[in-house]
Amino acid sequence: MAKKTKKAAAGLDKLPENAHIMGSGLVEAQQITSTLETNYMPYVMSVILSRAIPEIDGFKPSHRKLLYTMYKMGLLTGARTKSANIVGSTMKLNPHGDAAIYETMVRLSRGYQALLHPYVDSKGNFGRAYSSDMEYAASRYTEAKLDPIAGELFRDIDKDTVDFVDNYDSTMKEPTLLPVTYPSILVNNNIGIAVGMASSICSFNLTEVCETAIALMKDPDADITATLKAPDFPGGGRIIYSRDEMRKLYDTGRGSVRVRAVYTYDKESNCIDITEIPPTTTVEAIIAKLADLVKAGKIREISDVRNEIGLDGLKITIDLKRGTDPDRLMARLFAMTPLEDSFSCNFNILIAGAPQVLGVRRILEEWTAFRMECVCRRVDYDLKKAKDKLHLLRGLSKILLDIDKAVRIVRETDEEAEVVPNLMIGFGIDEIQAEYVAEIKLRHLNREYILKRTEEIGKLEKDVAEMEEILRSPERVRAIIVGELRDVTAKFGKPRRSLLLYASDIRQAAAETEEEVPDYPCTLFFTAEGYFKKITPQSLRMSGEQKLKEGDRITQTVEASNSRDLLFFTGAATVYKAKAADFPDTKASVLGDYVASRLGFEEGETAVAMVVTADYSGYLLFFFENGKAAKVELSAYATKTNRRRLVGAYSDKSPLVAVLHVPEDREFLLTSTSGRRLLVHTGAIAAKTTRSTQGVQVMTLKGQHRLKDVVPFAEDMVTKPNRYRTKSLPAAGAMPLPEDIGEQLTLE
Q: Helix 360-399 crosses helix 456-472 at what angle (to 10 degrees)?
């Protein structure tokens, strides 16, 4: 081997002296836009148009090449063949390696269980879509053929229903689209990631899709929610139905669908069996999350979790400790694990070579237009064939009048080349008809044969007229499509796998299964350093002075109950949510809980204010050093999910002075660093819808002065309140009277 290396190196040394490599050693300045156009953009277009985004027939190029190859191999009706044979044949159309082709076939197979209506009838180990650990076997060990529903993909493909193009090396022809007889783009899920865009199409029930397509062809303004209830996933699950979310998805092509797992409780074994999971997760991911929750001590009711996938399909078994309520446990697991997840939808489809995000109505309209073109092309193909046959038979009918004459012309013609011209002259027929007559076998030159053939003329004339009428009438074309859709529904329609759960039922069930929190009166204390105490009335009566960290002081004292929600605002414009029940009862003689540690604040965050609420009613008022105030409804912080941390809780454009909960409008006394005071009624401040609003200017400040203090107003605070009131905002306020300053005069 070493000798060969030296020999090759010697060969390089013998290059001619005048040898020249273009561009060698040169550094050429090139605009970045030019580089992107010449190098990057072709790649982008290739990924978008030829790889990642499906077209109106519901397939990406890799899917289409594989299925068409299997169709040409006769696997629609024949026996299964080794998957390796299919992969090898597909490489004539898709030269991207056997691994990529086989993986494509796996995802389309029945065994993989990723599609509502698989296109590949598989035999052997094809893995499972719901398991990341179940790898599929090699192609030499598995077998496959086309599933019967694949016949609907290729119906009349040989009748010029779609265009054909050359393959990559121009040795074969392949279809640009498949003439699908039903909206396969919506029946099977399809996910792809391109460059700068992506596509995520969920699956719908075949019967519902066909009924919706029929309804839209009859009435373009039909309500599609009446026939198309919601998506339908191959793995089942329960869809948490929201009419508004469905309408958004149907109208825009963007949205999300919440899916939760299906479980049963085995009372005898005291375990929960999960048999259906959301399509966005796997068995292994769920088990890993459950294990983490148990290790962290957040779930204590579980004694064991097992993966029991078998011949019967998916199954996760959760063993419960004695006395555990399975429904309450599952309600918590739905909130804390992927047992309830959202499928994000982005209906991005290639239409005429351009990616478009379309709603369901537009997709069905585009598919109908595509299918109408396919049907018209098929009818036109049949029409041409019928006209050609009719033309030949009309020529044949003319020799019926005198068969002997035809025989005599052929017999008496000296040269073979003159037979056709003599027949044309003898019977007044054209060259095509004469060629047809001349090729008739001698045994067929009898009256019976010719009469039987010419009897077809009447039927062909009716067929031609019928097909011409179809081509002139879009209504007739749509009627044909409707008939095909009904046939597909009758043959392949199946009941829904994903049943619907309504959001109202979910909320009611959650309320019923929610853990009972003991409710009792308590007093809540919050300090300037971020410490929190919850003390019962009895303990408070027996307590002495409150123990505080040196230099700390109590800033808020609230009489509440153990079931109240707590909102802790930090200096980083973030709010952390908790319940009073999350904190233990304590005594005045202890420092209490450091909120930042208890709730897991980010590094550097400290709590600056606490808000206590029972129903998220009223407003929050944020006062800033620049004299602005923001009024936000407290309900803006009531999240539907169990989110404990919200960023952008308020504006960070100016330092925060105070956060005040206002159940109803009232007056506040503002004091600036200049000493001016201003009485502001919160009714004069307009409420904002966004949490991070900068608010409105309330107090005008001059120079380097800032807003210093904000307190709820009481009548005994000043002697003449009207002095500090104003008719309009913003206002500068007024300097305090000597009697309003009080003891502060002696301190200065």
A: 150
